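Hypothesis: this fold can be encoded by more than one sequence.
Test: take the structure tokens below, design a sequence, compare later.
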């Protein structure tokens, strides 16, 4: 709902602007539900209709946002003496309006319809291990997104413009610096880990694990962490994701009979996304004050719960009895479970199943490839070979199929170029936020061990969730932690945790 204003002039202009923003948000939200349905429940033959539905909704929201009246209202509000919250709404609305206004409606519709068609093509290509099925759609997305970036700002690097779709508040140069720090730190650390003689348990969960039991475990874990089932649900999809808002936020995961850890960690990860959405201010629903602060911050919430809670010894002390209840043949100790959940894989090719360290090299590879695609330095036909070469160079492994290589992620089927860096940015941010929370919460480790997450939940609500998009990313991190956003906390955390686990000389 619109925020109460302090003058008649402000009330008229600001209230009309927020009403318009809420209507745009409602249309976009309807598209989000249709997108969720397409990935979870829609019959396979529904793509043609769904493509048209999503295209129409995207054009309707685009027209509403870019209507001349929206520009007039933004200009009128610029003349008002706004408080900090209203000024933030105006800032975010202005950014969204100007970006949308620069892009023709026909292009918006074409991108949307291409995404719906490309999703089905990607699913088929992945299932059949046939990159050629997906290649024409990827090529079309590259062309459309170059055109999109040209409309938004023809004088800047197209990839930089696209990156701002997902992280508008951090300059690409800052993202590149963080990715460079991670690559420089992690490549030699991973090499040292692989040469280590430390006796680390890697097989605490081997065998066949019934998927119904895995789902029961996931539901139990979600309840333990504090998921609000009155405002959410758990489903299965080919690629785990979260969709929704503070009133209705749904998570999905996927199950593999041979890999119960994969599903469990994916569930905890998606819980972090959902807990953030569900914690946004309800009174500001539909306006920037009730929306999340973009994808780096969003990913910080999922990675905080997945890595700093879910991969901790304390968490495994809490959750192992539930694991044994669902899988009575499991006889792993807490330490063995912790080591297996925290191990650095020697041969993992799949990003969503990666460990805390190699994960970032998966991101670097995607970042380098998509940037080259948008720059015209790489043809779509070359993607599989370049992908495989980079995996061999950075991780010492080479995919044998495109299904476990360049077809594994859903993002390019949506044309989401510039999205991947936010995963590493979020992971780095998660470490800094968790360190700050640990400093302020008495004996947080013991609370996690006891299944008491209330203090951590409250800290995140207070320092991140309640602000919505009021503060830009760097300011939000500074307010929450008292320090500038930096990769230093993550690199120190990685050196400490994995130095101990693998007895690394460089960390002694």
């Amino acid at each position: 709902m619109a925020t109460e204003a302090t003058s008649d002039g402000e009330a008229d202009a600001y209230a009309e602007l927020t009403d318009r923003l809420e209507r745009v948000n409602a249309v976009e939200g309807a598209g989000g539900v249709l997108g969720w349905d397409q990935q979870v429940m829609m019959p396979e033959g529904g793509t043609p209709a769904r493509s048209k539905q999503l295209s129409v909704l995207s054009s309707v929201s685009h027209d509403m946002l870019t209507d001349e009246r929206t520009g007039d209202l933004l200009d009128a509000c610029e003349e008002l003496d706004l408080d900090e919250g209203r000024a933030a709404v105006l800032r975010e609305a202005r950014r969204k309006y100007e970006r949308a206004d620069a892009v023709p409606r026909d292009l918006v519709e074409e991108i949307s319809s291409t995404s719906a068609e490309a999703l089905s093509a990607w699913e088929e290509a992945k299932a059949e291990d046939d990159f050629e099925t997906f290649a024409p759609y990827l090529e079309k997305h590259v062309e459309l997104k170059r055109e999109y970036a040209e409309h938004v700002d023809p004088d800047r690097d197209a990839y930089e413009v696209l990156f701002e779709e997902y992280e508008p508040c951090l300059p690409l140069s800052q993202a590149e610096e963080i990715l460079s720090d991670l690559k420089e730190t992690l490549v030699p650390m991973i090499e040292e880990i692989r040469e280590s003689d430390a006796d680390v348990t890697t097989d605490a969960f081997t065998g066949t694990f019934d998927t119904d039991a895995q789902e029961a475990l996931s539901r139990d874990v979600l309840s333990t962490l504090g998921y609000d089932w009155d405002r959410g649900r758990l489903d299965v999809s080919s690629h785990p994701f979260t969709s929704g808002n503070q009133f209705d936020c749904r998570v999905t995961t996927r199950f593999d009979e041979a890999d119960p850890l994969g599903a469990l960690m994916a569930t905890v990860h998606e819980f972090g996304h959902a807990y953030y959405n569900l914690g946004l201010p309800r009174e500001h629903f539909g306006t920037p004050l009730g929306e999340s602060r973009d994808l780096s911050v969003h990913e910080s919430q999922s990675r905080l719960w997945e890595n700093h809670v879910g991969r901790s010894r304390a968490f495994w002390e809490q959750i192992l009895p539930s694991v044994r209840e669902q899988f009575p043949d499991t006889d792993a100790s807490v330490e063995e479970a912790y080591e297996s959940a925290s191990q650095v894989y020697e041969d993992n090719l799949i990003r969503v199943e990666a460990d805390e360290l190699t994960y970032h090299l998966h991101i670097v590879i995607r970042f380098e490839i998509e940037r080259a695609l948008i720059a015209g330095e790489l043809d779509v036909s070359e993607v599989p070979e370049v992908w495989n070469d980079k995996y061999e160079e950075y991780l010492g492994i080479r995919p044998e199929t495109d299904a476990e290589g360049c077809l594994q992620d859903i993002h390019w089927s949506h044309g989401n170029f510039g999205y991947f860096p936010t995963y590493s940015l979020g992971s780095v941010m998660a470490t800094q936020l968790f360190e700050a929370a640990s400093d302020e919460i008495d004996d947080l480790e013991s609370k996690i061990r006891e299944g008491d997450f209330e203090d951590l939940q409250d800290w995140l609500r207070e320092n991140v969730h309640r602000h919505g998009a009021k503060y830009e990313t760097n300011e939000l991190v500074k307010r929450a932690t008292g320090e500038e956003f930096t990769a230093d906390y993550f690199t120190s955390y990685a050196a400490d945790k994995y130095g101990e686990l693998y007895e690394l000389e460089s960390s002694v």
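The beta strands are 234-236, 242-244, 249-253. The chain has two domains: 8-155, 172-507.
Hypothesis status: open.
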